[in-house]
Amino acid sequence: MTSLIYYSSTFKNFIKRDSIISTLESKYLEELISSCHPTDLFINSIWGELDNTLIELIKLKPSRAIVYSGMDWENTVCRKEFNDYISKNVKNIVHIGNSDGEGYFSFWLFFTEKYFASYPIEQVEFNNPKHLYMCLNRKRHSHRVTLVDRLKEEGLLEYGLVSLGGDSEKKIPQLNLKADAKEVDGNKATDYKPGDIPNDISSIGDLTNWNNTLINVVTETTTHTSTFISEKTWKPIVGLRPFMIVGDYKIYSYLKEYGIDTFDDIFGTGYEHPWVHNRIEWVINNLKKYSNTNLLDMYKDLYPRLVKNKTQLQKIFKINSIKYCKVVDLIKKN
């Protein structure tokens, strides 16, 4: 076990909150830290900063830096100064969590396994063909804003259920659903205020909305790293829906490796394009293509594949546990 541990001040404040995210995150942090050697520096890179705490810890000349990302994305791109300082001053660095390679495992798979309702198949079946798609967005990340703008421009809002957080400083109102989940577990993990879009991280949301809607358009948390897959991606799989994802470029590779049907024969492979704007256009083009489709017939055709995806998720949970155990063994090695 090591006593050389870095947390950013922002993360320290977050972990104090009584939320199901912080509770589960703490469990894995404790186990990973206890697996480190006494001369290791354990760095929780979430919201990492090049601050005095990091500088003083690195001055102690640790033999290795174990750099972890769990509940949020791996940040070597967006926090370059922070990561460059670590790389410059520690020769042996092991990236774990949301990092492609032997250190990879998914915090959000553990989270989904622990906190999501199982949703019996009959509870989530598409039984009222009212909406072509659902696209729910809480934070105004740029790729989400662009996608919603394109939905408006193409006249596609009327075909779907769409939400998007607002911007009070710019006086941009949020786009709300008429009916939505109310008291949800994730609200405690944010600066939630009454009237905000719920931070629904442990359910598929309002069941009436869900059962009225066919395609799930997932806008992941980030598009500028490689491997971050949050609970958002698992919702359509838990909830028996075909999906299109705008997110990190390796998401589909991981889903295929896990044995998930990604409906390439239905939607194509536009997710492979390196530019996010082109991936957004891929979504738009598919929604236009299927806007006049008999949704119930489409669902019936896809139904066996959707059930197979839902069943496969139980195997994926086991795969993730195996990956995690291998990471613990990796840390324990000299």
Keywords:
globular, 8 strands, 4-stranded parallel beta sheet, alpha/beta, Rossmann fold, 2 domains, 334 residues
- Structural class label: alpha/beta
Strand order of the largest sheet: 1-2-3-4
CATH level-1 class of the largest domain: Alpha Beta
CATH fold category name of the largest domain: Rossmann fold
Would you count the extended β strands for me? Answer: 8
Strand content: 5-15%
The biggest beta sheet is recorded as:
4 strands, parallel
User: What is the typical, i.e. mean, pLDDT?
Assistant: 95
Number of domains: 2
Q: Give the radius of gyration.
A: 21 Å
Helices and strands in order:
Blueprint: E1 4-6, H1 9-15, H2 20-35, E2 40-44, H3 52-59, E3 64-69, H4 80-89, E4 93-97, H5 107-115, E5 131-135, H6 142-153, E6 160-162, H7 207-211, E7 213-219, H8 231-238, E8 243-246, H9 251-257, H10 264-267, H11 276-289, H12 295-332
Parallel strand pairs: 1-2, 2-3, 3-4, 5-6, 5-7, 7-8
Helix pairs in contact: 6-11
Quick structural summary:
This protein is α/β, with parallel strands linked by helices and 334 residues long. Helices cover 41% and strands 11% of the residues. It has twelve helices and eight strands.
3D structure, described in words:
The chain contains twelve helices and eight strands. 41% of the residues lie in helices and 11% in strands. The protein has a four-stranded parallel β-sheet, sandwiched between helices. The protein is α/β, with parallel strands linked by helices and 334 residues long. The protein has helices at residues 9-15, 20-35, 52-59, 80-89, 107-115, 142-153, 207-211, 231-238, 251-257, 264-267, 276-289, 295-332, and strands spanning 4-6, 40-44, 64-69, 93-97, 131-135, 160-162, 213-219, 243-246. Helix 6 (142-153) runs parallel beside helix 11 (276-289). The model has no long low-confidence stretch (mean pLDDT 95). Strand 3 (64-69), helix 4 (80-89) and strand 4 form a beta-alpha-beta unit. The protein folds into two domains: 4-99, no CATH class; 111-315, Rossmann fold (3-Layer(aba) Sandwich), CATH 3.40.50.
